[in-house]
Design brief:
Blueprint: E1 4-6, H1 13-20, E2 26-31, H2 36-41, H3 43-46, E3 51-56, H4 71-82, H5 91-94, H6 99-113, E4 114-119, E5 128-131, E6 134-137, E7 159-162, H7 166-178, E8 184-186, H8 188-199, H9 204-222, H10 239-243, H11 246-262, E9 264-267, H12 275-288, E10 293-297, H13 302-309, E11 325-328, E12 338-339, E13 342-343, E14 354-358, H14 379-389, E15 395-399, H15 408-418, H16 423-427, H17 436-451, H18 460-466, H19 469-478, E16 479-480, H20 484-490, E17 501-502, E18 506-508, H21 521-528, H22 547-554, H23 562-583, H24 585-607, E19 616-618, H25 630-633, H26 636-640, E20 646-648, H27 654-676, H28 684-698, E21 708-711, H29 715-733, E22 737-740, E23 747-748, H30 757-764, H31 771-774, E24 784-787, E25 802-805, H32 812-819, E26 831-837, H33 843-865, H34 873-891, H35 896-899, H36 911-923, E27 934-938, E28 947-954, E29 970-976, E30 981-983, H37 988-999, H38 1007-1016, H39 1024-1049, E31 1068-1076
Parallel strand pairs: 2-3, 3-4, 9-15, 9-16, 10-11, 10-14, 14-15, 17-26, 18-26, 21-24, 21-25, 22-24, 25-26, 27-31
Antiparallel strand pairs: 1-7, 2-5, 4-8, 5-6, 6-7, 12-13, 19-20, 22-23, 28-29, 28-31, 29-30
Helix pairs in contact: 6-8, 9-36, 9-37, 11-12, 23-24, 23-33, 24-27, 28-29, 33-34
């Protein structure tokens, strides 16, 4: 018989085999792979044969004697094994989602009729097929492409069909191979096992990890041992490591990875999640590697850091013998003297391998990364030049609960410390298409646009859609940020203990006083609006002819002129008066008399001035004034105003100045009289505080807990409260009170030798501060603590369960930070309470008052500078936003990440999913062999309605418009049973969070749900519904893409419409899917 050519065009192999294979036929096939879809095509005839012997021509499904082969040999083998469930050209068949039913039939058939062997030698075997005495060759694979049902990527197909004697020779060759024990290994069991995997019922947990594996497996290859924590250093045996909670360990490992790879990292976990301990474990890792470490922290947190390195009884990690140095942010500006036991003039700043900056947001205003030679360096530049650029290569770990205020630049300035202000260093390490400067510029632009929108549209989701892929990539690379919600949702909190329950906040609005004749807030306010406060801007009155003389004296370099400085101070003072009025009548009165005294002194100088002599007016230096709250003591105006410059009265239009001062003096006189009668007895706010305290002490919210913290922004108010409250609670309840303000040592009614901050706090919160160890024989108890914001960051006072804000801080974040002192993980209190005192006006009035003060000061600026910027859009939006924030604070206790002006880096990182996967892979390395197209069934919840989550892979590079999908080429779509998209592929974080929430930890298939699913789909034979939903999911991706295409027509830089075509279903391959019932 002459050889016959089968070209799969005029005649297909499938047609020919359908005739040649008869009942009782014996088949022998040698080919590279075997696909269940080829079986499906020939099912009718194959089910009748007597036997099939199949040889895999290269090692496939063999049990590995050697360790895993090198990657380049391993991948093709994986592909051969995977083609059991269809090759890349059978995607369309896979997307019909009937693989479960096909795999089951195929497995049953194999068990009865087929034996598989695999070549385990390195010899090449050419593929062919014998059916009885007919031979077909060459056969490369047993797939639908080879059968001629699908068009593969072959230019042509030529298979020769021979009868005997040629077929007999081939059969003899096959038999010889088949019986050669050296070259062959029986792999039938493995094949059946693998096919079974395609119709097994899977647990939700498994499908979650299959998704992660597919999306992030390239990340696994990127992890080089150099960047992973080296466990040989023994840091996991350290004491600190044993004290960490699971989420802190995850963070510590990720931080080390980021420090090694990018040289810097920001840990921005939410308030109360123990950033200090996480950082200590990282310090321990580096100290074990013999590196030297510097901790830079605000002065008020010194003791926290010192405790963990010194040989103190209350150091829980004394056995780790940490040896880092602790200095303050402000030390950067000093060149001599001692600080925290170190001699600053001899300190080798350049010799630190790791710098840990606590509360790093203090460096967020950053500024210039290089200065002129003689230019004054600010703290930021000092840190860069002194510590980071000089000497050895320095890694930077930054800790901050609020790294972003309301500009993305805040974040960039902090990150710039890690790359020494030189963007090239980081650009080459990041996997981004643009440089970091450009990425942040674009992000800020998107944010500015977004912040002008109406409150309804100004949602985090909308902001996320506007930011591009590169921005997320940067955040993912160098930040770690988890919120409390996140920890509660995604970590097993059994060993951590719960967060206490937050009771709804109580709002108090006492009037100013109960005196009939006295005044109210609004009347005071009207008077405040009449003040000019020109005492703070003498340079406004310099005669025109003399201005140039002073421009030189002031050293006005154009960036901040003296006039500008004075404007800033004046505005600060005006706002400050209002803040102090809100805080307490006492503080307000003090400030009034201080300003009044200053004005009167100045007026008398002017009156006694003689034109012929000269008299220098000292510019008022207020940077030492305790009148300010902590936020403003750190503001730029305060710093810039340190230098005193003298102005000669002769050079001033002092007559006009005196008139203006005299007017102010009258207003102040009147105000002083108005509030003068309000003694503590008639101070309604103070009396209200007494009744709140009485109620709390008599009816504690947790058994026996009488502790209360009262926060105020001002030291003066704290003094006033201490004077009155301490007497009241001691007399009535026999309880002790203490007061802590930043400037002086603590005060307390308890008998204590030392009254420093730490002793006082230890007596107030004995459990969290280890009092038993520190003061074993001391039984002093302090129950009421009055404090300013000097303790609002970084202190753990969780013994207390009741926090009162005696004045509302204008920055809502500060309120949350205060609450974070008692709202902490592992607290022993069941519930905690926040009480807020508000001025006796409505919120709208309150916000408008603030706006009016700002505007009023701006209008005066305008006349001075010709600048007509009254309140910029940004400030207006900001006020609106504050209003919304404060409104929420009246009703609930909010997390910082829900509060911040829309930017929270919590919503962005995908890091924890990678870490999840890393952990899983260690225990389940076989996940890479998992077939595509698997599914699991999981229960619906309130957040996750019934439907399907499809995980798809795009096969042509045609969909990722403007780099918006961070997971490209993977696309995830969550669609309900009626075809509504719950979550699309552009918000992968939300999607993976949902998936993790539904699946993680459910490690067994859920039998009841599977029973329903199998019944509805006839054991996977009827998958039409899911196949249709898959079609809809894919078209939703394409629709979103088309919208972006239309948008991109109007974008500068051309369009993406012409560049990409999507053909639809066949462009996507189904990786796996999760049915939610």
């Amino acid at each position: 018989m002459l050889p016959e050519l089968i070209d799969n065009k005029n005649k297909t192999l499938k047609d020919d085999l359908s005739i040649e294979i008869k009942s009782g036929s014996k088949l022998s096939i040698a080919a590279a792979c075997f696909s269940i879809y080829a079986f499906q095509e020939l099912k009718e005839v194959l089910s009748e044969i007597e036997e099939l012997r199949f040889i895999f021509t290269s090692p496939t499904f063999t049990t590995e004697k050697a360790k895993k082969e090198r990657r380049e040999f391993y991948i093709p083998r994986l592909d051969r094994e995977r083609s059991l469930y269809g090759t890349e050209f059978e995607v369309k068949l896979r997307n019909e989602m009937t693989q479960k039913a096909i795999a089951r039939e195929c497995a049953e058939w194999i068990q009865k009729k087929v034996i598989f062997k695999s070549n385990i030698s390195s010899d090449n075997i050419q593929g062919f097929m014998n059916v009885d005495d007919t031979n077909y060759m060459p056969i490369s694979s047993f797939t639908t492409v080879e059968l001629g049902c699908e068009r593969g990527n072959n230019a042509y197909s030529a298979i020769f069909k021979n009868g005997s004697p040629i077929s007999a020779q081939f059969l003899a060759t096959f038999d010889e191979l088949w019986n050669d024990g050296e070259k062959m290994q029986d792999v039938t069991e493995m094949v059946i096992e693998n096919i079974t995997a395609a119709y097994n019922e899977n647990s939700p947990d498994f499908i979650y990890f299959v998704t992660l594996y597919n999306i992030f497996n390239e990340f696994l290859e990127d992890i080089s041992e150099d960047f992973l924590p080296n466990e040989a250093t023994g840091f996991k045996e350290s004491k600190i490591w044993s004290l960490l909670y699971n989420f802190q360990k995850d963070a510590a490992l990720a931080i080390i990875n980021k420090l090694e790879k990018y040289n810097g990292c920001i840990l921005a976990d939410s308030v109360g999640l123990g950033k200090t301990f996480t950082a200590l474990s990282v310090i321990k890792y580096y100290e074990n590697r013999n590196k030297s470490v510097l901790v830079l922290c605000p002065k008020k947190l010194t003791n926290n850091w010192n405790t963990y390195k010194d040989n103190y009884v209350n150091n829980p990690i004394a056995s780790d013998r940490l040896r880092y140095d602790v200095l303050y942010h402000t030390d950067l500006n000093r060149t001599s003297g001692k600080s925290n036991g170190l001699d600053l003039d001899r300190l080798n700043w350049g010799n630190y391998d790791l710098v840990v900056i606590d509360e790093s947001h203090n460096f967020r205003n950053g500024g210039k990364v290089s200065g002129k030679d003689d230019e004054k360096e600010n703290r930021y530049l000092k840190l860069l030049n002194k510590v980071i650029r000089k000497g050895v290569k320095t890694k930077v770990l930054m800790l901050s609960a609020t790294p972003v205020n309301n500009r993305f630049n805040d974040l960039k300035n902090q990150l710039a410390l890690a790359y020494e202000g030189n963007t090239d260093i980081i650009d080459e390490k990041l996997n981004t298409t643009r440089s970091i400067d450009e990425i942040f510029k674009n992000a800020q632009r998107a944010f500015n646009t977004w912040s002008k929108w109406d409150t309804v549209d100004r949602t985090t989701d909308n902001l996320l859609k506007m930011l591009d892929f590169d921005f997320f990539e940067v955040l993912d690379s160098v930040t770690i940020a988890r919120s409390r919600k996140h920890i509660e949702k995604y970590y097993d909190t059994a060993d951590i203990g719960k967060f206490p329950t937050r009771l709804a906040p109580i709002s108090k609005r006492p009037p100013l006083t109960d005196l009939k004749t006295a005044i109210n807030y609004n009347e005071i306010f009207e008077q405040l609006m009449l003040l000019n406060l020109d005492i703070y801007r003498p340079s406004h009155y310099i005669q025109a002819s003399k201005i140039s003389k002073y421009a030189e004296l002031f050293g006005d370099d154009g960036s901040l002129t003296q006039v500008g400085r004075e404007q800033g101070i004046r505005r600060l003072m005006a706002i400050n008066l209002m803040k102090r009025m809100e805080s307490s009548v006492y503080s307000f009165n003090l400030t009034l008399s201080r300003i009044k005294a200053l004005i009167e002194k100045t007026i008398s100088i002017i009156d006694s001035f003689d034109k012929r002599s000269s008299y220098n007016i000292d510019l008022v230096d207020i940077s030492a004034d305790d009148d300010f709250d902590s936020e403003e003591q750190n503001s730029d105006e305060m710093f810039s105003f340190g230098r005193k410059v003298k102005i000669d009265l002769a050079d001033m239009d002092y007559v006009s100045w005196r008139n203006s001062l005299a007017k102010d003096s009258e207003v102040l006189e009147l105000l002083t009289l108005m509030v003068g009668d309000i003694t503590p007895k008639h101070d309604s706010k103070l009396q209200e505080l007494f009744s709140v305290l009485t109620d709390k002490i008599e009816n504690p919210i947790n058994a026996e807990n009488k502790k209360v913290i009262v926060f105020t922004a001002f030291a003066d108010t704290a003094e006033y409260l201490y004077a009155n409250v301490s007497e009241f609670v001691l007399e009535k309840f026999g309880l002790h009170t203490a007061m802590i303000t930043g400037s002086v040592d603590g005060k307390t009614t308890a008998k204590l030798k030392n009254r420093d901050l730490n002793t006082v706090l230890t007596c107030f919160s004995p459990i969290s501060k280890d009092k038993k160890l520190l003061m074993p024989d001391d039984d002093t108890v302090i129950d009421i603590l009055i404090a300013t914001d000097c303790i609002s960051e970084g202190q753990n006072l969780q013994d207390c369960d009741y926090l009162i804000n005696y004045d509302i801080h204008w920055n809502p974040v500060r309120i949350i930070q205060r609450f974070g002192r008692i709202d902490r993980i592992g607290s022993r209190n069941e519930r905690i309470q926040l009480v807020n005192f508000w001025p006796d006006v409505t919120l709208d009035e309150y916000i408008n008052l603030k706006a009016t003060v700002e505007t009023r000061m701006k209008i005066v600026d305008m006349t001075a500078t010709g600048d007509d910027n009254v309140l910029s859009d940004e400030e207006k939006t900001d006020l609106e936003y504050r209003k919304a924030q404060l409104k929420r604070l009246q009703e609930e206790v909010v997390d910082i990440e829900d509060m911040s002006s829309g930017i929270s880096i919590m919503d962005l990182g995908l890091n924890e999913f990678r870490l999840d996967l890393l952990d899983y892979i260690k225990k389940h390395p076989d996940i890479e062999k998992t077939p595509f197209g698997l599914h699991a069934v999981a229960p619906a919840t309130a957040d996750t309605p019934a439907g399907v989550i499809y995980v798809l892979k795009n096969r042509s590079n045609s969909v990722n418009i403007d780099n918006q999908n961070r997971l490209h080429p993977f696309y995830m779509v969550y669609i309900t049973n009626d075809g509504e998209v719950v979550c699309d592929h552009l918000s992968p974080k939300a999607m993976l969070d949902k998936m993790r929430y539904i699946c993680k930890g459910k490690t067994e298939p859920i039998a009841e749900l599977y029973r329903q699913f199998n019944k509805e789909t006839r054991d996977g034979r009827n998958m039409t519904v899911f196949s249709q939903l898959l079609g809809e999911a894919i078209s939703s991706i394409i629709e979103v893409k088309e919208e972006s295409d239309i948008d991109s027509l109007f974008k500068p830089g051309g369009t993406s419409v012409l560049m990409s075509e999507i053909k639809g279903l066949d462009d996507f391959e189904l990786i796996c899917f999760l049915v939610i019932k």
